[in-house]
Automatic annotation (TrEMBL), chains A, B:
<feature type="domain" description="S-Me-THD-like C-terminal">
    <location>
        <begin position="167"/>
        <end position="361"/>
    </location>
</feature>
<feature type="domain" description="S-Me-THD N-terminal">
    <location>
        <begin position="9"/>
        <end position="163"/>
    </location>
</feature>
<dbReference type="InterPro" id="IPR024071">
    <property type="entry name" value="S-Me-THD_C_sf"/>
</dbReference>
<dbReference type="Pfam" id="PF06032">
    <property type="entry name" value="S-Me-THD_N"/>
</dbReference>
<dbReference type="InterPro" id="IPR027479">
    <property type="entry name" value="S-Me-THD_N_sf"/>
</dbReference>
<dbReference type="InterPro" id="IPR010318">
    <property type="entry name" value="S-Me-THD_N"/>
</dbReference>
<dbReference type="Pfam" id="PF20906">
    <property type="entry name" value="S-Me-THD_C"/>
</dbReference>
<dbReference type="InterPro" id="IPR048350">
    <property type="entry name" value="S-Me-THD-like_C"/>
</dbReference>
<protein>
    <submittedName>
        <fullName>DUF917 domain-containing protein</fullName>
    </submittedName>
</protein>
Amino acid sequence: MSWRLTAADLPDLARGATLLGTGGGGDPYIGTQLVEQVLGEGFIEILDPDEIADDLFVIPTAQMGAPTVMIEKIPAGTEPTLALRTLEEHLGRTADATMPIECGGINSMIPLLVAAETGLPVVDADGMGRAFPELSMETFAVYGVHGSPLALAGERGERVIIDTGDDDRQMEWLARGITIRLGGVAHIAEYAMTGADVRRTAVPRTISMALALGRAIRIARERHESPVSAIADTLSTTLYPHVRELFVGKVSDVERRTTEGFAKGRATIASVDPASKDTIELTFQNENLIARRGETVVAIVPDLICVVDAESCEPITTEGLRYGQRVRVLGISTPEMMRTPDALATFGPSAFGLTEAFVPVEARD
Amino acid sequence: MSWRLTAADLPDLARGATLLGTGGGGDPYIGTQLVEQVLGEGFIEILDPDEIADDLFVIPTAQMGAPTVMIEKIPAGTEPTLALRTLEEHLGRTADATMPIECGGINSMIPLLVAAETGLPVVDADGMGRAFPELSMETFAVYGVHGSPLALAGERGERVIIDTGDDDRQMEWLARGITIRLGGVAHIAEYAMTGADVRRTAVPRTISMALALGRAIRIARERHESPVSAIADTLSTTLYPHVRELFVGKVSDVERRTTEGFAKGRATIASVDPASKDTIELTFQNENLIARRGETVVAIVPDLICVVDAESCEPITTEGLRYGQRVRVLGISTPEMMRTPDALATFGPSAFGLTEAFVPVEARD
């Protein structure tokens, strides 16, 4: 069902999008501020992917960069629309709608900012179903829509168009090089496609889902109910039906560095029981990639590994992890379209240099 | 005067262009092979800048990268024309001619390769009057024609368009980032301009001059005359009238590294007299930037500092310098249009981080 999003929805959407960011994706809070400022009392039309015309022309928009830089380098707000306009001009065709390429983190907000500025509607779907660190890690690409040509805009009005044909990894590699040279953050428009392509290649209704998750966590808190149960209840009727609590403990160690345009590192979470040696270790590249409990892998990409505050269930990004925080680690199953052999080759463990095989989080003992 | 260039001219042109490369610019030998292959028995129309129409539409073409990489990574040959076509498509306008942006080194050959492939004529002028390491170091830019939009092509058909408005240094910075990620070499089309712009902003007749220099050195050798005198005689009627022999000796030390997409380092040349402590030290970033004899600066960028074989006067690039080589170091005056305050701000000593002031090579004692 298509629906209207207003500024009042933004805090819940940001909370849900941070959860789907699985530790990365950038903090959407700055994004909510930018959207609110432009949207005011207005609304954004959110289009259900099942209801759009086959020939609707959709240009997705996003921010690119390391989350650790994003929180220090705030965009002017006009760059994503400049990226969209640059791609429209290059293609000689104007967009009928925009869409997220990534529903997790700040990239849940960027298409809303474009929509608020241009009046375009936003398609309720995305190409990651969560957050991933690279532009090539898209269900769009897995199912045959490629990212090129990509348009990129910088904060001083720089405009770059990159066309690597069907080679999305080379597109990512070149766009990342430009982003690093622009100071670590840029805004992009890419994966232009039709409504029919959206239905075939996108993860559907992820904006709605992020909003529902954020709202459920808030309402559970207000009612003094369990936010973890609220998350599980909300997801039970979606393409993400399995939620597992992998660990409860306190952050005992965080190693984090920004390198080659990514925030890489690992975090250890120890039991709150001083007598216990039990720990869980998370390795991340922007997003959490793998969770090991002792020697045992308990969750692995592309399943979602989410760290939340132990009490409030407020999602915590990798750059927000601090020594001593009391947290819960949740494992959430990704949609089946993200677990096919082609999908796993694009954003499964081996795409991150991990040698461990993918095993669904719900299949582990 | 406009004239026709044939494959028989290429060896002399390459020799002259290497001299004008002032140690950098890349080895034009590979370029001559590529041009010969395409040109066969044909010819290339070389247009005198004083004879072209005001509205002739000129798109210069070039190779970009570190010379040390260029000699190991040989282009397929089709990339420069792909860059030209990409810029034509972006601008919605076809070129009437191409032109070098840099008359020194391999970039003397790239526009000829494009001409041989497309049938376009080549304007006898360029924007450096020698070689420089960065795309922003152009008389074009000094006199008001900017490089954006720039089109860049990679060996696997990658196409990139960069538009930084009037900011040519940002254009260079971003294009360099892409070039590094393409393995160190890329081909570009940029500084699109009219015939009237060429007359206002370009260093005229530098292809003719490179060819005349290369030919004069060869003929002097054949006649057992002094090639140094032949160089001085040839230049005496050009915009480069002053030639000084700065040193004769043997290479005693070379430090060279490829970093950030450039070949940087220094070379020391010592007297052949073992009793003498006399040396000259050259510092280079792709090209020779400064020559110091002991504590005294004897030549500095943008004047040309050229190392040639002591006997044959064959020019030697910085990557060709070897311990023990007997060499001469020549200082050659640049055209006056390259010595104005704006020109010196763009490619004078301070543009390379040198604190020494520019003093014309002919003004030193």
